[in-house]
What we know:
Arc Repressor Mutant, subunit A, alpha+beta, Jelly Rolls, 42% helix, nine-stranded mixed sheet
Amino acid sequence: MPLLKLHTSDFFFTDNHAVTVAERLPQPIFPIHNHDFYELVIVLRGNGLHIINDVPYYITCGDLFYINADDQHSYESVDSLELNNILYCRHRLSLLSDWQSLLPGDETHQEQRYWRLSVQGMSEIRPIVDALTKESMKSDKLSIQLSESLFLQLALLLKRYRHPPNSYQLADGQLLDLLMLALHAGIDKPFRLDDFCQQHSLSSRSIQTLFKQHTGVSVSHYLRQLRLCKAMAMLRQKTLHIGEISSECGFEDSNYFSAVFSRAMGVSPSEYRQRFR
């Protein structure tokens, strides 16, 4: 399938606008594409598979991506997935600020452009995105300036509330944030929800209900999808033995890994690897 190219002229209200918002409520399956603008992807709810430059990410509420103009990405296996896509043209930004620090771009490795947002952060950015959506659809000079100032406020809040997916820097974070961090950090080793709940004096049933409300899937399903995404990436990019990949993705038994992978992908790990050789 040829690469789909999205153009600034199809999304921005005028040639003077530096930023606009493309809501995806819901986000359908979308083929691989790139664009001549940059993009912030904020996942509001639901889940799905986001593939960026051939690297798969299992995404759900609170995930944040900084997408460069030349990045090739697509959406697969979506389930009630809802996104805020904030599109921007770097060369049109006129406010004086450290945009490179706020908006990691071409010089930043892909893994440093994938973050998680805390629950508090998600609640604080929503009214900013709503206001930005309205202002970016007006063509007067004042509205264009307001759009960029709201975008700067959004970029600052994202930097304040973002954290690496597998970092425990949120020592006093909210419970859902802590659970997400534990799952991302525990892909390559056994994870027991009961131990997590005991550590934080939680009810297992309550945290599972909260998790399902925010993500649309169970804790075990989410962790399994994280592990499968890591396996997919390793099968595409590395020559390790299937058993080694199984172990690094948190599966203690390679036969069980092969069965889970085959059921999810429709092909065995070996057959999947052959597709990318």
